[in-house]
Design brief:
70% helix, Four Helix Bundle (Hemerythrin (Met), subunit A), mainly alpha
Length: 141
């Protein structure tokens, strides 16, 4: 089966997951949004501390969850970060060479979520789908 990918989202996977989950898709996607934001913050914080061990789990979680929803680009970036962090753990070194990947992580998640929301809003004929602002752990106030 051909995969329709726009560079950020694999729409075939998105559609398959949506069909599988059914009516609760928007709610489950909301859980992904919240968890993904927490993972990004955890990876960023661990990177600032040069803590490769602390980067592995949130990068792994972000990778798996993103790919399940079709977040191809963010999933692959998280995979790169995870593999680099694991290599650093094995070599007992700091993850000093991930600057570019870490800088791309947050904007790529924001873009992925925006595309997901646009797709949900396009297909929600007559139904209001709440668009939530991505706060990355801070209360909007």
């Amino acid at each position: 089966m051909a995969q329709h990918v726009n560079g950020v989202v694999n729409w075939t996977t998105f559609g398959q997951t949506r069909a599988l989950i059914g009516n609760d898709f928007a709610k489950i996607l909301g859980y992904y949004r919240d968890d993904a934001a927490k993972c990004v913050v955890a990876v960023e914080q661990a990177y600032k501390l040069r803590d490769a061990v602390g980067m592995v789990r949130p990068a792994h979680t972000l990778k798996g969850d993103s790919l399940q929803f079709g977040g191809e680009a963010i999933g692959r970036l998280a995979e790169q970060i995870e593999h680099s962090a694991r290599r650093c753990v094995e070599e007992h070194s700091a993850p000093d060479s991930l600057d570019m990947e870490i800088l791309r992580l947050r904007p790529l998640l924001v873009e992925t979520l925006a595309q997901f929301e646009r797709e949900l809003n396009k297909s929600a004929v007559g139904a209001a789908v709440p668009v939530r602002r991505l706060g990355f752990g801070r209360k909007a106030g």
